[in-house]
Amino acid sequence: MNTNDMTLMLLTGAGATAVTDAWALVRACWFGTPLPHFGMVGRWVGHIARGRLRHDSIGAAAPVRGEHAIGWVTHYAIGMGFAMLLPAIWGWDWAHQPTFTPALIVGVATVIAPFFVMQPAMGAGIAASRTPRPAAARLQSVTTHTVFGIGLYAAATLINSLTTGG
């Protein structure tokens, strides 16, 4: 691993996260699904910094200064961190010769984070069990993380084609 490999994977994660954001816009236009509210993620992270990990309802928690910016930065940082799972599991060669299946596996597997960490900690319960429509929330999470996996492959392929001229 070298600095170029690390940069490639961080850009891959940012690109994949941008693909999920584009998917959220498509979902909103086609299905009327609300856009993600990353301010609530920022609020949660802001409270973690103050020593509180779990909330009954993150929406009822005190606002945190800069929570929208914190949420967006966290969203992209998580995506870049998840991208690092690919070389950690499949080796750094994946960064230069990306294949679809590992990217999809990582994308789908990352749904573990919202199901078992973020949603419970923010008051939504394990796998959104405390939300008004848990099955719909779960489907949305799985679909979004599948799109993230597709985005990992697409971003890595695009970045490689731009950097290698092919």
SSE string: HHHHHHHH
Question: What does the main sheet amount to?
Answer: none
Strands, total number: 0
Subunit arrangement of the protein: single chain
Helix content: over 70%
The amount of beta strand, in percent, is under 5%
How would you sum up the global shape?
globular
Structural class: mainly alpha
Word description of this protein:
This protein has 166 residues and is mainly α. 72% of the residues lie in helices and 0% in strands. It contains eight helices and no strands. It starts with a helix and ends with a helix.
In short:
Helices cover 72% and strands 0% of the residues. The protein has 166 residues and is mostly helical. It starts with a helix and ends with a helix.
